[in-house]
Design goal:
Chain lengths: 521, 400
Amino acid sequence: MTDQANVDAIIIGAGHNGLICANYLAKAGKSVLVLEAKETVGGAACTREFAPGFKVSAGAQWLYQLNPNVVSDLKLLAHGLEYAAQDLESIALNPNGKQHIIIHGSHAGGGDLSEHDAHQFAALQGQLLRFVNVLDRVFNRRPPKLIESDWHDKLTLARLGLDMKMLGKEDMSEMLRVGLINIYDLLDEYIDNPLLKGALSVDAVLGSHMGPRSPNTVFTYLYRLLGQHYRFNGPALLKGGMGQLADALLSSAQHAGVEVRTNCAVKKVNLNADSAQSVTLCNGETISAKSIVSNADPKTTFTKLVGLRHIEGGFSRRVQVMRMNGNAAKLHLALDGLPGFSGLSEHQTGARLLIAPDMKYVERAFNHAKYGELSSAPAIDISIPTAHDSSLAAIGQHVLCATVQYAPYDLKGGWNDEQTKQAQNLAIDTIAQYAPRIKEQIVSAEYLSPVDLEQEFNTYGGHWHHGEISLDQVLMMRPTPGCTQYRTPVDNLYLCGAGAHPGGGLMGLAGKNAAEEILRG
Amino acid sequence: MINNVSTLPQHNKQMMLHTPFHSRVVEACEINEWSAWQGYTTPGSYTNVEFEYFAIRSNTGVFDLTPMTKYRVTGADAEAYLDRLLTRNIAKLGVNRVAYIVMCNDAGDVIDDGTLFRIADNDFRLCTQERVLDWMMWSAAGFDVNIVDETADVAALAIQGPTSCRVLRNMGFAGLENLKPFGMQNVEFNGASVMISRTGYTGDLGYEAWMAPEQAESFWDALFEAGKLRGIRAFGSQALDIARIEAGYLAAGVDFVPAEQIVRNGRGRSPLELGLGWLVDFNKPLFSGRKALLKQKEYGPRYRFVKLSVEGNKPADHSFIYCRGKEVGTVTSAGWCPTAKTNIALASLEMPFGRPGDELEAEIYYMRELHWTRLMAKCTVISKPVWDPARRLQTPAPDA
């Protein structure tokens, strides 16, 4: 580098991982500049008004696996992180309007759930949590390389081996057996109750392009269970919506000395031979840095910011074939009253409500999506944050925020107004089967397809995790071989977003691990 | 970016393709010895391999190279695209010039070698031994280029040997003697344009003619008529192989395994390991394989590709090479060179072996009347090809 760099590190994108990475770097004494294209920071951790007087967490709706070390290291509680509700129950809604099943951590009960099933569920969760403990050890550090590994990688692998061994013979062989199979078969082995299995299977497929019968879905279920390992005994809501997480992260980062510029879109990353030197903003300004760290997803990073023609051919191919088409939509409803769900008390309406009567229902919903069609009966994950938080709507009014699974990014015929409206109606009709009067309560509605999510959050394919959490795209293969350990084939260019190990879900570890790797030099 | 694959006969109708010269090739192929080359029916030999070989070295040999894979690359980014795809600096290649090239994968292993013809500023023909369309299409993302496989749309002949220039001039292509090596020009034939390049794979004075398939038969006829008194003779792949080994040229799939076909780790070879380091321009900011090759340059290649002069006259085909009893590599191509009158071998040796002066031995097995004999033949590393006549590079091309 010939010229003096303006700063030590530029972070492209002020998503949660970008802010976390920036914060750790600043705490280590680096000068850090964060550049955010949008007016607000936080990326998918955001609160937004979607109808006059109605605010909602427009991206992620539940906080369920934020890493506790990140919270304490960055003193997020001191910087304003405040929970509106924690350890919420999940309620599997029964289409018959009664006999709903309540899931709380590793306990399930209610409805027609047999004692045997409840016991089996607890046993299964207990075992899976032991596996998650092993995973967490790997998630907390950079993924080890198998070839060309250094002492750090060898230590990680040795620890992983030891952790597996420590599971004991039975658990270890069980982990190896179930690690690669699908959630459908696994739940069938343990549990009889279709409603409980349906609800649990949703956790294994949310945000992904997989059905319960897709291989890999036990791994994604374990991934989701990481939250429980991080002491989330059920999902949580933040006071003021998920934007509060962004605010706390921003405050903490600024306190650490990070400079954050919003409305400041990066147009491209400039290379000198195969080394990143600077970024050029959309306004034409060029800023140089010793390290350039992309919080953007890998496809956006390489296709738009770096340019496929500026990387070698084989890696260009890797980027092209990465799977990251989103398959989940968001539904936001502004309501003039608390919706009444058949068979639920008012208090229970504030829980996490799941529409997935059985696993075949979820698999059928996926069938449509596989062929680029809308699911006629989608699986839905519902939150009504106003049951806990009065800051999102006027007194007496409520918002319903839901993840609709599935909604294929590459919908046949494309996501035009007509198809979006149809998808919205399908989702509302589905909810109305459980909350019969809800349609009369709707003041305003918003449906965000993966294409809308892509535009709103600048994520390729509108994918939550910046790329499928599939076995070929995790650990030392995340986001793709040749681009692991937060490094890229472009020198001085790093990845710190959900596209890097261990992935997204507002966990914060990608940003934290990336910072550690950048500091390692 | 569009990929138009030529319209070829359906495989259920015709398993093996025929080149546009086929009617003439059949007529000339007296011994009916056919082999398959990239899906085409081609002669291994027409009459007698030695006759054919000596036509190349003493008169004019004609080889139907239509099956050679040909890609046309056009579009605003054609130069930039090829510059990223290939290790050489394409900006330096002038219009109407040809370059010998290699392309590498990101690991720096050679996918294929070939020749690149610059027809116009943003119009190139890339000729390769292997089919590499997949790799080329993947590499095209982000570039405004159009890639067409024109293998079946362009008929091509190699016209090689000391009298080749005279024969072509006899066809009416005046001034061809002034065409420089690796140059090309268009000539008029039967009212159509035929491209002639001064290129070849025999290590001798020679040309390659590129034309529309409709021109093929009449071009062949006119060529053989013009060469009647100059000893013109068609040659097959076996004679070509002798000539290229004598000239020290590599063959993809023989002297190295194309990177995209490799199954086992570490079996690929980089340009530096094939003696083709001169084709790699590290001053370019980017090309596929650059990072890996830079690293290899720094830490040293794993293998050295050498030409060996082998004692005796028994071809060292596939022989192990030893250095003071230690096995250090294998022969990839070998043969007795009839004109240079020497026994040579191309070999891939582990570093650091193959230095000038290394005492090497080839373990040669040969059979005579069902009797196998094993011999250890002394080998000497040679730096220059054993066949490299001055006429190969002379301009104007000598008349003969």
